[in-house]
Design the sequence.
């Protein structure tokens, strides 16, 4: 008897379509990414800045018990967190590059995009599902350690951090983590959709962000033009972070400008994804 | 025969200036139906419109009484689609991939896993289901594609060139599997192919597309009717006069690289060929009888026979066309 005559069962238990349909996409993509040991190692390295800053906060407060006044050396307000996020962003860039480069590119290369889009899923579900992968990775090394660091700061130096006038700091840390994660995740996904090769997309994304950083630095140095930071995504995120966390600002530029640039990049990325994520490739 | 599963009227779809479907009308009834036509005829466009990927410029298309352009999710959950192109997720085992496809179709995770194993067993991949799909042969990849299309037990299965890239044995196995799905499991399917034999071996009905228009549609046995006899002929002498006389006697002929395939008029036998050859002073150096194949019938429907005509490269013919004597 041919093997295909063994079994086939009708499936009668159809349920109503789920409202949250992107979760299987996120879960499977995360599972595939986290199965790579190199990526897991990078994820662990992503917590190094947190450890460094946690030790820094601990050391200052502990020395404060010995030498009065040392705890007050801890910068008040959000300066510590702003500094933490600036360090963290470099690792986030690496994580986003390795984790996000192939997210859409591989689906386009292997034709898997048709497996997704021929199902009861919208293109929006697909993009949200893939974006959630990068957000989960980025928030794991920004939001979680950021809030932990805030908790440590409150626990070890309550006089400086557990005050009503700094009640906004916790939400500001969370908001900045979200802004940072979105600012890297959306362009990474858009660049991934522009190629059929994960490697090419990864190199393009990393090169783009580092290149823009370099251009902003050179233009800023030569022209002494504060608005030069608007050329760099990372500089925009840092400037917005300084404003959100109440840290001393590196630039005289109002925070609204980098915010607008980041919004424009997010909208541009969504437009690219809208054009590229489709089941029908139209060759003109 | 039930109500049509898919109904389309005056359906026009274009990609910019390129018209893919030029106002076609028809329907797909329950059961297996073939969708035939050479490359660029509009077959895949019709399937993609049915899946809601493309919006018609004009006309209407309904599947299960729903408009795919307006309710694509409801339509897609009832359809299983096996694309022509390779499709798999790198690094994923077949079991995980098919279960994932089931979950995307709305099945709960436990049920998805259970059905994935059943369907992989059904398509003959039970031994290899824990291997990553990247390591599969072409035939196995085709089976995984079929499994992911079947896993949620669709009401309608869309198969786009399911035997592409398969060796003869693999092709027969795939066709047997598709026949089983259509007959024993009573699943309606649309088999999109340019291989007429594939369609003939699985389907009862067919829609033939040509350059965005319907060239023929209906039951295969009614469309083909009584088949005519044919002869592969090689001659020496004034072939032009011979062919002209053949045409005058109601025969059609087709020139290949090397000779002529003569489609006899009803009731005519080889004696007609010899008589005409004698009248024209032409020497018949080779005459081999054959039976008109389904390919020949559809090529005629598509207008690919007649004086000086040649088969299109997409309509793969089995005919051995002999060359003129040199």
Sequence:
């Amino acid at each position: 008897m041919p093997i295909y005559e063994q079994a086939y069962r009708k499936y009668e238990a159809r349920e109503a379509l789920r409202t949250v349909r992107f979760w299987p996409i996120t879960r499977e993509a995360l599972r595939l990414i986290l199965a790579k040991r190199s990526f897991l190692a990078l994820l662990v390295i992503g917590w190094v800045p947190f450890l460094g800053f946690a030790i820094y906060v601990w050391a200052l407060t502990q020395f404060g018990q010995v030498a009065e006044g040392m705890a007050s050396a801890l910068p008040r307000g959000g300066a510590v967190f702003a500094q933490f996020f600036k360090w963290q962003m470099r690792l986030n860039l690496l994580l986003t590059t390795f984790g996000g480069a192939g997210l859409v590119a591989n689906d386009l290369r292997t034709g898997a995009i048709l497996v997704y889009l021929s199902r009861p899923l919208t293109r929006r579900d697909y993009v949200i599902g893939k974006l959630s992968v990068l957000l989960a990775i980025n928030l794991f090394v920004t939001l979680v350690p950021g809030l932990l660091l805030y908790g440590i700061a409150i626990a070890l130096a309550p006089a400086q951090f557990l005050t009503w006038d700094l009640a906004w700091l916790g939400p500001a840390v969370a908001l900045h983590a979200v802004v940072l994660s979105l600012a890297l995740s959306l362009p990474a996904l858009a660049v991934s959709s522009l190629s059929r090769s994960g490697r090419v997309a990864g190199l393009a994304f990393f090169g783009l962000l580092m290149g823009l950083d370099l251009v902003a630095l050179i233009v800023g140095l030569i022209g002494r033009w504060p608005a030069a930071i608007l050329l760099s995504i990372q500089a925009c995120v840092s400037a917005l972070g300084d404003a959100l966390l109440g840290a001393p600002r590196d630039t005289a530029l109002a925070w609204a400008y980098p915010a607008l640039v980041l919004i424009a990049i997010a909208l541009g990325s969504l437009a690219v994804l809208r054009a590229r994520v489709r089941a029908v490739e139209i060759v003109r | 025969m039930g109500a049509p599963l898919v109904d389309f009227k005056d359906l026009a779809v274009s990609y910019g200036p390129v018209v893919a479907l030029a106002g076609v009308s028809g329907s797909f009834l329950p059961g297996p139906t073939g969708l035939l036509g050479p490359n660029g005829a509009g077959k895949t466009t019709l399937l993609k419109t049915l899946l809601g990927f493309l919006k018609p410029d004009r006309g209407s298309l309904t599947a299960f009484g729903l408009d795919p352009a307006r309710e694509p999710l409801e339509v897609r959950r009832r359809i299983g689609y096996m694309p022509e192109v390779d499709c798999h997720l790198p690094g994923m085992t077949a079991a995980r991939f098919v279960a994932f496809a089931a979950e995307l179709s709305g099945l709960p995770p436990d049920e998805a896993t259970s059905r994935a194993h059943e369907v992989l067993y059904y398509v003959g991949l039970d031994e290899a289901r824990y291997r990553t799909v990247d390591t599969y042969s072409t035939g196995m990849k085709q089976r995984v594609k079929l499994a992911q299309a079947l896993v949620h037990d669709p009401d309608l299965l869309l198969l786009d060139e399911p035997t592409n890239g398969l060796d003869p044995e693999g092709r027969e196995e795939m066709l047997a599997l598709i026949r089983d799905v259509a007959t024993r499991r009573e699943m309606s399917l649309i088999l999109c192919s340019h291989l007429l034999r594939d369609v003939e071996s699985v389907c009862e009905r067919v829609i033939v597309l040509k350059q965005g228009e319907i060239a023929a549609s209906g039951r295969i046995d009614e469309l083909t009717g009584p088949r005519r006899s044919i002869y592969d002929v090689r001659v020496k002498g004034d072939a032009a006069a011979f062919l002209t006389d053949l045409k005058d006697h109601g025969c059609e002929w087709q020139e290949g690289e090397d000779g002529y395939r003569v489609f006899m008029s009803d009731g005519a036998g080889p004696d007609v060929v010899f008589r005409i050859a004698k009248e024209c002073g032409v020497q018949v150096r080779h005459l081999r009888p054959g039976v008109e194949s389904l390919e020949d019938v559809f090529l005629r429907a598509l207008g690919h026979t007649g004086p000086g005509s040649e088969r299109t490269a997409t309509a793969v013919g089995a005919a051995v066309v002999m060359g003129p004597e040199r």
Summary: DSSP finds eleven helices and no strands in chain A.
